[in-house]
C-alpha cells in the first residue's frame, strides 16, 4: 500500500522488475558478506595470533576504501564510456539522475558488416544504483583477496595507498576489457563472473606485490599456525554460501541461467573439496581441515568463469581438476620451483586463485554449452570445444584473455609498488614484525593469559586471592604458567 503523498509511479517505473531488482541487491549483499565478515573472519583466524588484528583490518579497510573510490571515479572507468579499447572514462556515480535510471551495460557494442550485433547493450530491469552496488562488491573482494598474499608484514600505511591505486590502474582495466565493453568482451573471451577479472588478477597481483614487499620474518614463515581453526571454518562457510550471489547474480536477472550458476557453483566446490581431501589422505596420511578449505576455494574459483554456461557433469569434471591441479602446484611444484619458494605468498593466493582462475577460464572454453550460452547475453553465439563447430577457437581466446590479464597485472602492480616505495616503506619495521598487532595497532585479538606473562588474578579471570582459591584453581593457575 502506498503512503499518502508518495510518488509510486516514479519509484516503480514501467521498466522495473521488482523480482530482478530484489535478487540483484540480495546477490550483491551475499558477495559483500563474503568480504565482511567472511574473509575478515577467515584472515583473522587463519594467521598466527600476533597478526590476527592486522590481517582482519587489512580486509576491512579495503572494503571501505574501494566503495568510496568506486562511486567517485572507478565504476565508470570499468563500465562507462570508452576511453581506450581496454579502459573507460572516469566519472562520478553519485548523481540521482544517474542512479535511478535503468541500468545499461556495456556502453559500447560491436556491429558487423551485415548490421547484426554480437554483444548488444544489456538493459537489466533495475536501476543503475543496484548495478553500481553489485559491481562494487566484486571490486572490493578482489582487493581483499590480494591482501591474503601480503599478511604478516606489509606496512598498513602502504596498504592504505595501494588499495585505491590498484583499483584505479589495474582492476578497472580488467573489468572494462572483459565486462564493460572493451576489446576482449567484443572478441568473445568468456568470463561469466570473474575468474579472470577477479581471481586471476588477484592471484597474479598478490604474488607480484608479495615479491616487492618482501617476506615475513623467517620465524613466522617457519611456524605460522592458525590461531582459531573453528572460526576460520566459519569464515570459509560464509565465503562458500556467499558465492551463490557471486555467480548467481551475473545474469543480471533472477532467471534460469542464475539458477544453473548457483547449482553448478556448489557442485564444483563440493567435488573440489572432496578431491583435495582425498589427495591429502593418500599423500600425507591425514585429512587437513585447512586443505579442505583450500579445495573448497579452488572449486569456487574454477567454476566462476563458466558457472552458468556449463552442464552439471562438466561442473563435476571442473571440480575434479580444481581439486587436483592447484593441489599439485601448491604441494609439489611450489616446493621445487625456486621463484615460488622465494616469494612469500602468505595464504597461497597464487595457487588458489591465479592457478584455479586460469584453469576455470580454460575449461570454460572447452565445456561452455551453446544453449546455456544463448541465455547469457555477452556470449550469445559462443560454445565450448567439446561441442564442435567453432568451439575450438574459444580455447585460444580464453588463453589470450588470460595472458592479457596476467601481463597487465604484473606490470601495473610492480609500478604501483615501486611508486609507493618511494614515499612509504612497503614492509613493516623489524620491531613491528617481531611484536605484531600490539606494535602496529596497539590492540590484540585475544585478551588471554598464557603468552609468557606473569599470572595476575585481577586481569585473568580469577578475582580471588591465592589464599581464597580452591586448591584445584590454584593448581590450574600455577600449572598453566609452568606449561606455558
From TrEMBL:
Topology relative to the membrane: Multi-pass membrane protein
Entry GO terms, CC: plasma membrane
Keyword tags: Ammonia transport, Membrane, Transmembrane, Transmembrane helix, Transport
Annotated ranges, domain Ammonium transporter AmtB-like: 22-446
Gene3D superfamilies hit by this protein: Ammonium transporter AmtB like domains
MF annotations from Gene Ontology: ammonium channel activity
Cellular localisation: Cell membrane; Membrane
Residue ranges crossing the lipid bilayer per the database entry: 22-44, 56-75, 132-151, 163-190, 196-214, 226-246, 258-282, 289-307, 313-333, 354-379, 399-424
Keyword Transport: yes
Stored PANTHER family: AMMONIUM TRANSPORTER MEP2
Family named by the database record: Belongs to the ammonia transporter channel (TC 1.A.11.2) family.
Protein name per its UniProtKB record: Ammonium transporter
Organism: Protea cynaroides
Amino acid at each position: 500500500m502506498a503512503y499518502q503523498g508518495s510518488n509510486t509511479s516514479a519509484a516503480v517505473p514501467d521498466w522495473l522488475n521488482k523480482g530482478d531488482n530484489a535478487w540483484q541487491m540480495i546477490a550483491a549483499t551475499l558477495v559483500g558478506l563474503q568480504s565482511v565478515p567472511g574473509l575478515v573472519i577467515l584472515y583473522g583466524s587463519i594467521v598466527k595470533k600476533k597478526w590476527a588484528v592486522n590481517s582482519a583490518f587489512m580486509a576491512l579497510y579495503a572494503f571501505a576504501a574501494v566503495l568510496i573510490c568506486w562511486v567517485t571515479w572507478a565504476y565508470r572507468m570499468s563500465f562507462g564510456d570508452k576511453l581506450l579499447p581496454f579502459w573507460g572514462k572516469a566519472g562520478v556515480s553519485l548523481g540521482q539522475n544517474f542512479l535511478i535510471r535503468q541500468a545499461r551495460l556495456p556502453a559500447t557494442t560491436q556491429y558487423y558488416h551485415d548490421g547484426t550485433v554480437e554483444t548488444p547493450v544489456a538493459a537489466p530491469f533495475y536501476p543503475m544504483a543496484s548495478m553500481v552496488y553489485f559491481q562494487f562488491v566484486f571490486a572490493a573482494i578482489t582487493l581483499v583477496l590480494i591482501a591474503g598474499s601480503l599478511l604478516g608484514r606489509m606496512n598498513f600505511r602502504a596498504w592504505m595507498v595501494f588499495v585505491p591505486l590498484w583499483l584505479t590502474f589495474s582492476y578497472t582495466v580488467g573489468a572494462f576489457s572483459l565486462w564493460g565493453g572493451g576489446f576482449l568482451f567484443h572478441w568473445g573471451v568468456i568470463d561469466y563472473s570473474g575468474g579472470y577479472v577477479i581471481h586471476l588478477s588477484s592471484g597474479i597481483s598478490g604474488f607480484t606485490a608479495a615479491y616487492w614487499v618482501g617476506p615475513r620474518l623467517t620465524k613466522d614463515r617457519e611456524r605460522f599456525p592458525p590461531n582459531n581453526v573453528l572460526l576460520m571454518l566459519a569464515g570459509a562457510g560464509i565465503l562458500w554460501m556467499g558465492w551463490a550471489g557471486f555467480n548467481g547474480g551475473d545474469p543480471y536477472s533472477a532467471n534460469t541461467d542464475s539458477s544453473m550458476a548457483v547449482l553448478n557453483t556448489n557442485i564444483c566446490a563440493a567435488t573440489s573439496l572432496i578431491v583435495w581431501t582425498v589427495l591429502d589422505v593418500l599423500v600425507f596420511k591425514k585429512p587437513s581441515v585447512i586443505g579442505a578449505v583450500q579445495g573448497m576455494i579452488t572449486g569456487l574459483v574454477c567454476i566462476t568463469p563458466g558457472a552458468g554456461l556449463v552442464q552439471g557433469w562438466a561442473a563435476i569434471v571442473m571440480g575434479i581438476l580444481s581439486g587436483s591441479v592447484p593441489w599439485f602446484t601448491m604441494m609439489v611444484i611450489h616446493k621445487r620451483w625456486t621463484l615460488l619458494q622465494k616469494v612469500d605468498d602468505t595464504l597461497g593466493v597464487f595457487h588458489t586463485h591465479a592457478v584455479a582462475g586460469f584453469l576455470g577460464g580454460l575449461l570454460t572454453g572447452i565445456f561452455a554449452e551453446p544453449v546455456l550460452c544463448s541465455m547469457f547475453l555477452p556470449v550469445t553465439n559462443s560454445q565450448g570445444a567439446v561441442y564442435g563447430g567453432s568451439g575450438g577457437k574459444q580455447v585460444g581466446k580464453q588463453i589470450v584473455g588470460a595472458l592479457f590479464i596476467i601481463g597487465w597485472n604484473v606490470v601495473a602492480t610492480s609500478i604501483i609498488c615501486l611508486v609507493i616505495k618511494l614515499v612509504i616503506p612497503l614492509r613493516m619495521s623489524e620491531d613491528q614484525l617481531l611484536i605484531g598487532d600490539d606494535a602496529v595497532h596497539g590492540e590484540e585479538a585475544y585478551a588471554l593469559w598464557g603468552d609468557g606473562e606473569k599470572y595476575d588474578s585481577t586481569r585473568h579471570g580469577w578475582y580471588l586471592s591465592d589464599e581464597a582459591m580452591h586448591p584445584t584453581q590454584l593448581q590450574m593457575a600455577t600449572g598453566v604458567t609452568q606449561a606455558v
